[in-house]
Amino acid sequence: MLAELIINQLKLQKHPEGGYFRETYRSEGEINFTECADFSGNRNYSTCIYFLLTSEQFSSFHRIKQDEIWHFYSGSAIRLFMISPQGDLTEHIIGNDLLQGQNPQLVVPANHWFAAEIIEPNSFALVGCTVAPGFDFSDFELANRQELSIQFPQHQSLIEKLTRE
C-alpha cells in the first residue's frame, strides 16, 4: 500500500489524535510568554510537520492554542470540521482539485475544535501542518466525547463519530 511506503519513507510515527506524523521544522528562535495568559514558558516562532491520514482512521476532535495551517500534498481530499468557541460548525475540503472547490491550504484558528477524515475509501492524504507560535504538546487538548457533546449538543452525532472516547 502506498500509504505504508510513505509512512516508512518519511519516518512517520503514530499521532495521539490519529494518523501519522513527523516534525520537519522547529525554528531556532523562541518567544518568551511569561506575561501571556494563553501560554506559559517559551515557544518557538514556528513548527511544521508531515501528517498522513488513511481512510481507515480519522483525526479526532482536538484543539490547540495556536493557529494551524494545513497544506495539501498528495492523495485523497480531506474533509475537516471546525467548531468555533461559540459553537458554530464549518466544514472544509482540503485537496488539490480547485475546479471542485477544494482548497490546498486551510487555516484552523486558535482554540477551535477540529477533526478530519478522508473522503475517498481505501485511500490516504499527506499534508503538512504549520503552527505559529510553535507547537508544544502542552498546548494540545484531545476532546473528551461526553464533555464536548455536553458543550455542543447540536453537534453530538458528529462528535460521536470523530472522537475516540
Polypeptide structure, described:
- This protein is mainly beta and 165 residues long.
- It has one domain: Jelly Rolls (Sandwich), CATH 2.60.120.10.
- It is 13% helix and 44% strand.
- It has three helices and 13 strands; from the N terminus they run H-E-E-E-E-E-E-E-E-E-E-E-E-E-H-H.
- It has a six-stranded antiparallel β-sheet, with no helix packed on it. The protein has a five-stranded antiparallel β-sheet with strand order 9-8-11-6-13, with no helix packed on it. It has a two-stranded antiparallel ribbon with strand order 3-4.
- A hairpin with a 5-residue loop joins strand 1 (13-14) and strand 2 (20-26).
Outline the fold blueprint.
Elements: H1 2-9, E1 13-14, E2 20-26, E3 30-32, E4 42-44, E5 47-54, E6 58-64, E7 67-75, E8 78-83, E9 89-94, E10 105-108, E11 113-118, E12 124-132, E13 140-142, H2 145-151, H3 156-161
Antiparallel strand pairs: 1-2, 2-5, 3-4, 5-12, 6-11, 6-13, 7-10, 7-12, 8-9, 8-11
In short:
It is built from three helices and 13 strands, in the order αβββββββββββββαα. It is mainly beta. It has a single domain, classed as Jelly Rolls (Sandwich).
